[in-house]
Automatic annotation (TrEMBL):
Residues 76-220 form the CzcB-like barrel-sandwich hybrid domain. InterPro entries: Beta-barrel_RND_2, BSH_CzcB-like, MdtA-like_C, RND_pump_MFP. Residues 228-297 form the CusB-like beta-barrel domain. The lineage of its organism: Bacteria, Pseudomonadati, Pseudomonadota, Alphaproteobacteria, Sphingomonadales. This is RND family efflux transporter, MFP subunit. It comes from the Bacteria. Residues 309-359 form the Multidrug resistance protein MdtA-like C-terminal permuted SH3 domain. Gene3D superfamilies: 2.40.30.170, 2.40.420.20, 2.40.50.100, Helix hairpin bin. Belongs to the membrane fusion protein (MFP) (TC 8.A.1) family.
Length: 387
């Protein structure tokens, strides 16, 4: 009888031990499964890229710095109209001259002889014309008396007309050579400054020689033209009357005013730029034509344009793009049109709106359709800095 209770106890203890083993094994499996699920969740969360976003701001007025060239208001190269020898020059480089002032005198003995011959030919033609006129008048009187035929009278009138034409031609030739004789004195066409002189005493000057250096160069420097080529994206914001400032490389701190007076109204296809002209007052003659300057042109922000930090731009073979985040955290690579580069910021002409969320400093691995997590940026948003 004593063996039965002992056997029951053994089975009871064995059942309890088995249950304990099953509980331990089941708990381990449950804990392992929970750990695996947690690791999977962490791995999935780590696979999502954290990004910071920024919204576009309306473009603000700023300025653009472009190279320009100063040119004289008027500039003329004085060449010889007749061949001869330089007998005198009366102006040198840097001299201020007036309109009509003699710059140099040429000796042209061959021209003088041609003029003398032309005058003699003209006198001969005048004498022949007078004789032909008298003959025509006499034959007209004889025709009234029926002493000559009408045919003979008409021939005399024809001779007079022919000789009169030759006399007029001789007179025109005298006028032409007299005008050429006046070209032996080289004169300034307008008030200005002599910027170049190649005339030398006794030098032979050949009129009409191709590629020859001009004897004088005159420039009107009281006013200067400032030529600047502006990009096509800025052409719409420039109009007559816009004021700009420029500085010389040797005087970077001195700003000089200029006023826009005209534009080319056409974009050059090769460079994608438009030529504009500014007027510069130079009555003190401190500026020199031909100088290169840095021009600062104010530019107003056009409607519908925005500014973004330069770090948002993605440049590739497909052009400029930005990464836009939608409501579901998906990435959309959107092409944009870039305007002014202001260093820290870039002007965007099209492709974004004020409500878009743009990825700030997108990683290289970011592609279309990626799932991302938006986090707060560690650095403050870039402001719309003016260049």
């Amino acid at each position: 009888m004593s063996d039965q209770p002992s056997r029951k106890k053994v089975w009871r203890y064995a059942g309890a031990g088995g249950f304990l083993v099953l509980a331990l094994v089941g708990g381990g499996l449950v804990a392992r499964s929970a750990a695996e699920r947690e690791q999977a969740t962490i791995a999935a969360e780590n696979a999502v890229t954290n990004v910071s976003v920024i919204q576009p701001k309306p473009a603000e007025a700023g300025q653009v710095v472009l190279p320009g060239t100063l040119e004289a208001w008027n500039r003329a190269e004085i060449n010889a109209r007749v061949s001869g020898y330089v007998s005198a020059w009366r102006a040198d480089i840097g001299d201020t001259v007036r309109a009509g002032q003699t710059l140099a005198v040429l000796e042209a003995p061959e021209l003088d002889q041609q003029l003398a011959q032309a005058r003699a030919d003209y006198q001969t033609a005048v004498a022949d014309r007078e004789l032909a006129q008298i003959s025509a008048q006499r034959w007209e009187s004889l025709l009234a008396k029926d002493a000559v035929s009408r045919q003979e009278r008409d021939e005399k009138h024809g001779q007079f007309a022919s000789i009169d034409a030759r006399a007029r031609a001789a007179q025109a030739n005298v006028g032409r050579l007299s005008a050429m004789r006046g070209f032996t004195q080289l004169k300034a066409p307008f008030n200005g400054v002599v910027t170049n002189r190649s005339a030398q005493l006794g030098a032979l000057v050949n009129a009409g020689s191709a590629g020859g250096e001009p004897l004088f160069t005159i420039a009107d420097v009281r006013r200067l033209r400032l030529y600047v080529r502006v990009p096509q994206t800025l052409a719409h914001s420039l109009a007559e009357g816009v004021r700009a400032q420029f500085s010389l490389p040797e005087q970077p701190g001195q700003q000089i005013d200029a006023v826009l007076v005209r534009t080319a109204e056409a974009v050059e296809r090769r460079s994608g730029t438009m030529l504009v002209e500014f007027l510069v007052d130079n009555r003190d003659r401190q500026l020199r034509p031909g100088a290169y300057v840095d021009v600062r042109i104010p530019v107003s922000g056009a409607a519908g344009t925005f500014q973004l930090p330069a770090s948002t731009l993605i440049l590739g073979s497909d052009g400029a793009r930005v990464a836009v985040i939608d409501r579901n955290g998906r990435v959309s690579m959107r092409p944009v049109t870039v305007g002014r580069d202001q260093g820290t910021t870039i002007e965007i002409l099209s492709g974004v709106s004020a409500q878009d969320r743009i990825v700030l400093t997108p990683p290289d691995s970011l592609v279309q359709g990626d799932q991302v997590r938006v986090v707060r940026a560690n650095t403050p948003k870039a402001s719309n800095a003016k260049s």
